[in-house]
Amino acid sequence: MNTDYTGLAEFHWLIEVMQTVDVGVLVLDLEYQITAWNGFMENNSGIDSADALGRSLFDVFDDLSVEWFKHKADTVIQLRNRAFTTWEQRAYVFKFRNNRPITGVTEYMYQNCTFIPVIGTTGKVQNLAVIVYDVTDIATSKLELKAANDRLAQLSRTDGLTQLYNRAYWEEMLSNEFKRQKRHAHDLSLIMFDIDHFKKVNDTYGHQVGDDVIRAVAEEVRHNSRNTDIAGRYGGEEFALLLIDSDAENALLFAERLRKAIENRRVSTPEGELQVTVSLGVAPWKESFHHYNAWIEAADKALYTSKDEGRNRSTLSK
Amino acid sequence: MTVPLLVVDDSSFARKQVIRALPKGWDVEVSQASNGEQALELIKAGKGDVVLLDLTMPVMDGFAVLEEIKARDLPAVVIVISGDIQPEAEARVMKLGALAFIKKPLDSEQLHQVLSDFGILSV
Amino acid sequence: MSTDVLDEELRDCFQELSNVAVGRAADLLARLLNNFVIMPIPVVNLLERAELSMALSAIADASSVSAVCQGFTGSKIAGEALLIFNDASFQDMAELTQFKGEITEQIELELLMDIANILIGACLKGLAEQIDVSFSQGQPYLLGQHINIEELLNRNGSTWQRLLTIELPYKLEGREVNCDLLLLFTEDSLAILRNKMSYLLE
């Protein structure tokens, strides 16, 4: 009598704990019908246990992917092995609105879940328990941190004035492409170019206008190159461009198009419109380059030839 | 008659477990090998009329030992005692001529049963 | 009892227990994928802190691997499992799980977690049962995704000097699937494990 009562009391508080614990507890039978549904599930889904018990899980959550869930559940049941899902893999399994007016920053609750095979008295798996953890706080702070890091990474590789890649990052990209080229050669060409008589622009019109000129040239680079091309500001008035899938002929055509575009561009100054020109050196990839520096040198050499021959022109490296 | 019995496993702990699990009073002369190559040497030297063989071993694994025994028609009766419990592993060793497949961790009663089922104890 | 060295007898015993545990995990994986799993030979070692750092940095450097970490604890034994999965394996994994369509990053994560759940879960269970304990597993973490491995190493404030490691390189027969499972046990666990083993060794 006494032991019965103790047993009952124990059962009562066990249920009470399961009801109030701050994780979701959901138990299913092998037909995916809900056999247990605790307070966390009630409160977050807005569905009372009276309305949930005995119903198919997929009726209660009509946006739950049946195929995905069954694959997880079947593996757990057949292999009698726990399975874990993380918010990184799937933001949530059960779509619960995140209803916090002040601290809520996401629309839905991020969840980690544990799938547990429940072995019955027969020694066979008779139920599947799913434990649902609310990890919204962790997930959002990780995501924010990642966004901030991405932003920092982007800042650290961008040239402030032109929004092209800065020299350090551009060289890193060149180095990567160079290594790839050594393994697997594609058509690839390098263009180095600079603004003719830039010092005179600065001396005559001041640095403000000098900056405007550099920005205008960068804009033409952006307009005329493709997304895959890798463009950077190499030095003060020097630019570098890596053209993916471009042989010598294509690269020279591109250089000429860019040269003309810049020649036709007008930069407004307090003293009227200003025209600038650029000199370019084009160096297609060669097997004989042992370091990417040799490639830059080849393009630079061609650039000097352009300068020597009167500027505002493109030269193909020999 | 004393039976030349060979226990093959890369783990000495596992070999000890197997030897400890042998039926009491069974008249055997036990030899041990820690890989397939040693095992074949000993079988050729007449030390392994009955072989209790592990599968996963360095140098030469249990599958290769069974292949050699089959190819050279060596006079050895092989019972596999394996941690690799994939049904495919069992199917492969049976096809290669093993007498029986016992899963690790070794249950001594199961070993006794197999030994008596195949009449090895009474030899 | 010194924990400085792993004597041969104990190492051998660990290796055999791991072998049995690994066999169970391989069996489950083979059933899930319907493909024969080549059983790895477990490598048992005591790893110095610096060596683990080196191993993890190597993972961080290789952009072509994914990793999952999962802590476990029970009966005063604790540690972490680390599954390192070669990204080249995803294509074959997708085929084996009958997945059709493009392999997005999302799908890769699903595949990775499926494998991690099975290999880590079954290995731990197999080991635990043999030494008559049971482990509870924490939530798994994806390394490299939102957690930078180098940062993790730097901020790791624990004071352990060496770990017991069990290394399990899994392969699928006829497939380009490669993954390494590392079970790491804390220094404190070593004495307890030694104790549990001693009665297996008599």
Describe the overall structure.
- The complex is a heterotrimer of chains A (318), B (123) and C (202).
- Chain A has helices at residues 2-20, 39-45, 49-52, 57-60, 66-79, 136-157, 167-183, 198-205, 207-224, 248-264, 292-308; strands at residues 24-29, 34-37, 83-85, 111-119, 125-134, 188-195, 230-233, 238-244, 266-269, 272-275, 278-284, 314-316.
- Chain A has eleven helices and twelve strands.
- In chain A, the strands form three sheets. Chain A has a five-stranded antiparallel sheet. Chain A has a five-stranded mixed sheet with strand order 7-8-6-11-12, sandwiched between helices.
- Chain A has 318 residues and is α+β, with helices and mostly antiparallel strands.
- Helix content of chain A is 46%, strand content 22%.
- Chain B has 123 residues and is an alpha/beta fold.
- Chain B has helices spanning 12-20, 36-44, 62-71, 87-95, 108-117; strands at 3-8, 28-33, 50-53, 77-82, 100-103.
- With 202 residues, chain C is α+β, with helices and mostly antiparallel strands.
- Chain C has six helices and eight strands.
- Chain C has helices at residues 8-33, 49-61, 90-96, 105-130, 149-155, 187-200; strands at residues 37-38, 43-48, 65-74, 77-86, 136-137, 141-143, 162-172, 178-185.
- Chain C is globular.
- Chain A binds chain C through residues 75, 78-79, 81-86, 88-90, 112, 114, 133, 142-143, 145-146, and chain C through 28, 31-32, 70, 106, 109-110, 113-114, 116-118, 121-122, 125, 137, 139-142, 145-146.
